[in-house]
Design a protein that fits this description.
Blueprint lengths: L2 H13 L21 H8 L3 H8 L8 H10 L4 H10 L16 H9 L5 E5 L4 E4 L1 H7 L12 H7 L12 H19 L3 H13 L1 H9 L7 E8 L3 E11 L5 E8 L5 H18 L2
Antiparallel strand pairs: 1-2, 1-5, 3-4, 4-5
Organism: Amycolatopsis dongchuanensis
Pfam family, one: MLTR_LBD
Protein name: Helix-turn-helix transcriptional regulator
């Protein structure tokens, strides 16, 4: 671990980013190049004091979760992100799970989708980043690792995960998850994590095993969904998808379905979500 060099590196990465690149207002009276320390801390979900200590080369060794959050906040590419982990004395996370590297271009697009729920997931349905409206709509993604990081895995192993969709839609969602996972497994080739996830699902879920035996394959590029929210009711939404070049990550965003009252419910959700966020501070 080299905390002094880590602080130097963080300062250099912070100085190169324009506020507009991360969805922040610029303004003519900024006293520092790039972002301010408090802005980076807010983007990474850290306290200003904690981040300041990191830049000064002090404090305890940052966790892998914090390093991943800082890499996303600072829009680091894969080489810069690996360097950040090396300086902090942490192993670079594998390319799966909730700590997987997110491409800066996808983060930039996510930051521009402020008026609609949006999130970035892997092709194994592991949620990587959510905007506030996506958190309000779907709930915050799990912080832990393992197979439970995949919503598709929880869908077949945890009945509580299914509350987000009406019961009459469960069959369609199950079929879509199974076909999409088959496409991901084929695309990834000899990927041990993906193979183990599917193998475990086949052991634990009779429903998944029956669907897997069909051999259906289909990449989930667009879908219509009815999302059940405890505060604003059922929202009829179209889920649109932008795939990364290698197909391993997806930017999802949800828009109101034409002819429904989903737009009104989304506006209400925005109010409810901001109130809940304020109550946690």
């Amino acid at each position: 671990m080299n905390l002094a060099e880590l602080g130097v590196f963080l300062r250099s990465r912070r100085a190169r980013i324009r506020p507009g690149e991360v969805g922040l207002p610029g303004g003519p009276r900024r006293r520092v190049p790039g972002l301010r320390r408090d802005e980076v801390a807010n983007l990474a979900g850290a306290s200003v004091d904690y981040y300041t200590e990191l830049e000064r080369g002090r404090g305890a060794q940052p966790s892998a979760q914090m390093l991943a959050a800082l890499a996303r906040a600072l829009r680091l590419d894969s080489d810069e992100r690996a360097h950040l982990f090396h300086l902090a004395g942490r192993p670079v996370p594998p390319p799966h799970g909730h700590l997987a590297h997110v491409q800066p271009a996808m983060l930039d697009l996510l930051g521009r989708l402020t008026g609609t729920p949006a999130q970035i997931i892997t092709d194994l349905h592991e949620t990587l980043v959510q905007n506030p409206l996506a958190v309000a709509l779907l709930g915050a993604h799990p912080r832990g690792g393992g197979f439970e990081a995949s919503f598709a895995y929880r869908w077949f192993t945890d009945p509580a995960a299914r509350a987000v969709y009406p019961p009459e839609d469960h069959q369609h969602q199950s079929e879509a998850f199974a076909a999409d996972l088959r496409a991901a497994l084929g695309r990834r080739g000899r990927d041990r994590h993906a193979e183990e996830l599917v193998a475990r699902l086949r052991r634990l879920s009779t429903e998944f095993e029956e669907l897997w035996a069909r051999g259906d394959v289909a990449v989930r590029r667009r879908d219509s969904k009815r999302i059940v929210h405890p505060e604003v009711g059922v929202l009829d939404l179209d889920c649109l998808t932008l795939l990364s070049e290698d197909g391993r990550q997806r930017l999802l965003w949800f828009v109101p379905r034409a002819g429904t009252d989903a737009a009104d419910r989304l506006r209400l959700l925005e109010v409810v979500g901001s109130q809940e966020l304020g109550s946690t501070r």
